[in-house]
Each structure stands twice: as structure tokens, then as C-alpha cells.
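If you are new to this repository, start here. Below is one unmodified record pulled from the training split, so you can see the exact layout before writing a loader.
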Amino acid sequence: MTEDQERAQARASALLGLIMVVAAVVVLVDAANLRESDDALGPAAAPTLIGLLLGVLGGALVVQGVRFLRTPQGSALDPRRLRRLAAMVALLIAFALVLPILGYVVSSAALFAGAALLLGAPHPARVVAYGWTLAALAFLIFDRLIGLSLPTGPWGF
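And here is the target side for that same chain:
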């Protein structure tokens, strides 16, 4: 990886960290507004923990990216990275559009496989198998065990 690519990656990491910190603030504010409970762990326990972890990790990414960027060196955008980023954004938009039509499992498996292949996964057949497995497990856990309703699509999953 060239130094220009490393600097672009550091900028992207710092930006992602900043977004994570903002999301952490939103999660923590929402968690603070949840109703009180007499239970030892009320409804705000999990969101508070997630918000704190999100904020710490985001802050660490920001600090790491800024430290790296303070070293003097010019940088240029790599066209391959921009195409990969555009493809990832298109993949996420396609996921949002087909989710209500095809259901969670099919849409999530396609998203996982597409993202992994865009990031350079070496074995496409394994990636597809892993995508289906992860999506099906997530569906079973959230929809069947926890009771959170996920879009089912025409096949019922």
C-alpha cells in the first residue's frame, strides 16, 4: 500500500470514527430518555453500554487517523478506491430497495457476499455460503428467538 493510499485510509478511518462518536451521542441521549425500571438492569442498560463502546471506539479511530495525518505528505485519491466505494454505496442502496421485496435472508446474504467480494474475498463460493449462513442465523435469532419482526419476503424467510 502506498503512502497516499495509507493517508486516504487514515482520513476514512477518522471520518468513520467521527460518525461513530455522533451515533454514540444519539444512542446515549435516547438511552437516557428511556423509562425508569425497578429491575437491576433496566431498558437503558444495553443501549448505554453500546453507546459507550461506540463512543470509545469512534474516538480511538479519530485520534489514530488524526495522528497519522499529521505526518507531512501530500495525497491523491485512488480511482480504484473511489469505484469500490461507489459500488459499496450502490450495494447498500440496492439492499434497502430489495429488502421489503425479497426479505431479510436473501437481501442480507446478497449484501454480505457483494461486500466481501468488493473487499477482495478470495473464494466466491464460500462467501456466498457464509452470507446465507449468517443471514439465516441472524433471522432465526432475531425473528424467532427474540421476537423482532424482520421482513420475510415471498418465501417466508
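Two things worth knowing about this chain: Residues 98 and 108 are 10 Å apart (CA to CA). The chain has a mean pLDDT of 87.
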